[in-house]
């Protein structure tokens, strides 16, 4: 983490200070992520959202933003050719589901992402896990 501090610029100081002042709040992280979406590189956006999800691990909103960023980045990339990148995002989904396994939207995003990859057994097992984790009223989704 300390080796990534070069990703924090002078323009970020106000956001970093806001995060320190309001440590349990999601709003400073959302403001920071919004700023990075407009003015930062993909690496900087991922850096901020990774820290946000680590700091507030039960935040559905932060996880969803982070997962959308990471999956959007791979949208038109070949899953076999960029297998290592896809594996990283799969691991990210697994991390999110440790705490948010009752959130159907996270499961839907993950399953749609897995369906783009040549991982038949993993995809089938993940569908089974989703059905076990979610209440019956959510199964039709």
From TrEMBL:
It is found in: Nucleus. The keyword Transmembrane does not apply. Pfam families: HAT_Syf1_CNRKL1_N. Its main location: nucleus. Residues 11-141 form the Pre-mRNA-splicing factor Syf1-like N-terminal HAT-repeats domain. Keywords: mRNA processing, mRNA splicing, Nucleus, Repeat. PANTHER family: PRE-MRNA SPLICING FACTOR, PRE-MRNA-SPLICING FACTOR SYF1. Belongs to the crooked-neck family. This is Pre-mRNA-splicing factor syf1. It comes from Cryomyces antarcticus. The lineage of its organism: Eukaryota, Fungi, Dikarya, Ascomycota, Pezizomycotina.
